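Batch manifest, entry 17 of 40.
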Amino acid sequence: MISRAEYDQVREMHVLQKRGPVAIKFLKKYKKSLTGVEKEIFSYLETESKKHPDLKLQELLQLRFPAAEKTLIRQQSLVLDKINLVGRDLQRNEYLELRNLVNSSFDKIFEPNPQPEDRFRKKDFQIQLENLQIKDQKLKSKLLKIAKTLPTSSSSVNAFIVKYSQPYKIKYVDGELIKTVRDSEELGLRLISPALATDEHIHAHKLYRKEEQELLKNNKNGKTFKVTILTSAFINNRKGDMPIDEFINKCAYNIPENVQNHINKLTKVAYVWMKKGRIEDSAKLVDYIYVLKNEFSKRSKIINIDTFELEKIEPEIRQAYQKHIDKMQTKKTKKAKKEPTKSSKRPDNADNSHGETYTTTDGKRMENRKQQRHKSRFSN
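Output type: structure tokens
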């Protein structure tokens, strides 16, 4: 995973705006963090940068645009054709409205060289489909499920190439079209952004809310304890608001194994912190690991965290923490009992006021240097 601070640093350096070979060399250290579409796009850019060393990342991507667009059109057409076929079971007036939506989408897909704002967009299509007045909700749900299979830049290499080859991206703010330039830097950051470290709630938000409502109904405190675990933005987005076990069953990755590996790494970090004198941080991390274990035990029937390694080092960490607390308490007690000390200044200066002169104990008249103004020895 990549930390937010590291990601921001990459953005501030603007190294991704340089020639392809330079940008690729910089991105190589994140290669192991790339998955799926991003990994395939990086491999393509890495290969092409050797053939075209003077081109930037986006220019290299645009070399593959014509072929990618044709493949994307075929992929989109297959999904729209399937929607057409399923829609034949609708009432006639509903089917005609669906046909109009599908046909207008086909027009956008097959439009030659459209501007970004005129291109077919999956999100817009889904919203329009959702807004259709269809009485048979079961059939409507089936149509929406099919629409979800339309390719996107996160699921399709071809959709990715088409999207990030565009000269600009669009956004509507208060009905006004805003255009923002797309460039090589945006492309490079997009490749590594799924590897960004994020906090993911183990329990789904909708289930948290349900728990809170149950507590309120029973006249108890209406707050539940939310526990998060560090994961990548890719996994965070994939999980969404799914219960953890449902996500595990749908995900291609071995989530239970990855969680255990994460716990093992945290255990090692806790021990290293203790050895380096970060006693409080080490003890807090131990507590957090047990919180994770309890949360997964409560929320999942699949994940069973093993804390055997933690249990071996925990006594040493707890003992070090107790010594640290005792030491801090002793210092605090001594400081509270300590009486204010007298001034260490010479008694000759006891009568030193803030006047221009003062008299010492032996009767001498002295100038008060606190009131004198001195010219800088470095002045001209």
